[in-house]
Amino acid sequence: RGRSVSIMTNQSWSSLTRRRAVPSVLFAAAGAAGLLLGRDRSAALLFLGCALATWLLVPRIARWALRHRILALPGGRDQHGRRTPRAGGIALFVPIAITLAVLAVLDDARNWGLLVGATIAFGCGLVDDVRRMRPLPKIVCQLAAGTALVLAGFRLPELVVPGLGSFSLGVAEVPVILFWVVLVTNAVNLSDGLDGLASSLTMLGLAVLVAGGVGSLVPIALAGTCFGFLHYNMPKARIFLGDSGSLLLGFLLAALSLQLPAVRNVPLALAACAYPLGDVAVSVTRRFIRSKPIFSADGSHVHHKAVQYFGTQRRGLAVVLAFATLHAVFGVLWPGAVSLMLSALFWFFAVAMLTRRGNYHAGEVMGQRRPMRRLHALQRYVGLRIKRAEDRAEVERALLHFVEGARLCSVTVRGSQVVNREGCCVEAQGDAHPGRPCEHHTIRMKVGRAAWRGPEVTSGSVLGRERETIVIRVLRNAAEKLAEFPPVPDDAGEIDITEQGVALR
Questions:
Q1: Neighbour tally for 493: CB within 10 Å
Q2: Number of C-beta neighbours around residue 21 at 10 A
Q3: 3-state secondary structure at position 442
Q4: % the chain with pLDDT above 90
Q5: Are the CB atoms for 396 and 416 separated by under 8 Å?
């Protein structure tokens, strides 16, 4: 267990910073020189100041997150191999909040609305990082952040697509603004599944907004914070944005896109958010076809498939960014019906290639709908029972239902071991008694480890990966709940499921 966190503890953040500082400083100096030679030196200084502030804050935030166990744990849909701090959004929020407050006083009072909305989005994400939130409260917080924009004076009177005309919104203006804020905020949050991806996509989107005519200094400051954070977030990441960072970036990207010139606001806004929005559309469609809850997380996003097909996270990140850059370039060069048609064609070919490479068959997909619904219904039921448990025995009884419903053999977490004797697979014992193949899994928790054993599932199957993700989630919920109760006594036995019922051995 000590080895799994040695990267973050024995190797100090200061030594890591010194080792990786030279290429980052050279890259930043080159970019700053180009900006300083341009017309707006204040923008260049703001970019460098925000980048430097974030770069200096990240190591301190990482140590704080490690100390308070605000960690992303490996296993399930997560592809990282070690416990990693996930409160990087704090390092982005501090310089952005200061910048918004200064600009609100000196330049545009609407930035107060941006600051209030950004604070709401950041606070919601930070609570979710520390203590998970349900989807509905998160959406309510995002609606509150969007309302702050409306009250501050952000407007969207019409939608304009060159070549197709303009569409006046009228009384639908405020609902459309709120819908756009919620959609883009969650889209960027969902795209934060690969090291460096959400920050890079945000920088690309901000470049589209600046090229499209957004004259505010806020995109420059936000790009600087993303640049400073990428120093630590590129593969293999030493810290993650967490929901505090991804919700903050998504909200600000959605809000700044409302400042685009009205003559071509639709194609430019879609070009700035092309990959996150397209990935959301693909994910929602995939989950609907598989009868999976829309708000449930999974490891089948386009960027996950890119890593799977191209072998490494760096290659997958490069491919996804190249794909997103195509949308951005065409959106800036031909903002209108042409760019929208090209974006739709790009996504059509991408989905067709993923479907072909994944060898998806209609019969197999439709046959997984009922088991998928059963798994998620079981997760919701057991999760509710664990949440309402008042002692260790109630948590163990909830785990009994889960072991039986998920057809597992046993689970072990924080001193509690639940065994399903009737449904248990039998280990192979030579040619005479081959038994059923059995799999053993061990996962890392914030404190210690948990394990489960069950029948072997088809390697790489969607249903098998989903079951693994749900088992990990349930065990982690159980571990957090069991930590609230006294430790199990040394002479306690196993919890068994037999034909006669439940018994303690």
A1: 10
A2: 12
A3: strand
A4: 37
A5: yes
The CA R_g of the chain, rounded to the nearest whole Å, is 25
CB burial string 266-301: b at 16+ within 10 A, e below: bbbbbbbbbbbbbbbebbeebbeebbbbeebebbbb
Cα torsion through 117, 120, 125, 128, rounded to 10: -150
Interior CA angle at 461 toward 455 and 463, to 5°? Answer: 75
Mean predicted confidence (pLDDT) in 380-405: 90
Please state the pTM of the whole predicted model. Answer: 0.84
Are 238 and 195 in contact, with CB atoms under 8 Å apart?
no
Classify residue 309 as exposed, middle or buried by CB count within 10 Å of its CB (0-12, 13-18, 19+).
middle
* Both structure tokens of 113: 């609305």
Of the candidates 327, 190, 193, 201, the residue with the CA atom closest to the CA atom of residue 253: 201
Q: For residue 337, count CB atoms less than 10 angstroms from its CB and return exposed for 0-12, middle for 13-18, buried for 19 or more.
A: middle
Whether residue 90 has pLDDT greater than 60:
yes
The Cα 449–Cα 19 span in angstroms is 32
The pLDDT value recorded for residue 9 is: 46
What are the two backbone dihedrals, phi and then psi, of residue 412, each rounded to the nearest 5 degrees?
A: -135, 125
Which helix (H) or strand (E) covers residue 502, if one does?
strand 501-504
Other CB atoms within a 10 A radius of the CB of residue 109 amount to 11
What are residue 86's phi and psi, to 5 degrees?
A: -130, 30
- E-assigned strands of 145-237? 158-161, 165-168
Is residue 38 predicted with pLDDT exceeding 70? no
Q: Do the Cβ atoms of 63 and 69 come closer than 8 Å?
A: no
DSSP H or E segment with residue 269: helix 265-272
Across 152-292, the runs of DSSP E, i.e. the strands, are: 158-161, 165-168
Calpha distance 265→267 (Å, rounded):
6
Winning range, highest mean pLDDT, from 37-51, 200-214, 456-470: 200-214
Nearest to 181 by CA among 207, 204, 152: 152
Q: Which amino acid is at 172?
A: A
pLDDT exceeds cutoff 80 at 442: yes
In angstroms, the CA 12 to CA 251 distance is 33
Query: How far is the C-alpha of 289 from the C-alpha of 300, rounded, in Å?
Result: 14
DSSP string spanning 480-491? HHHTTSPPPPTT
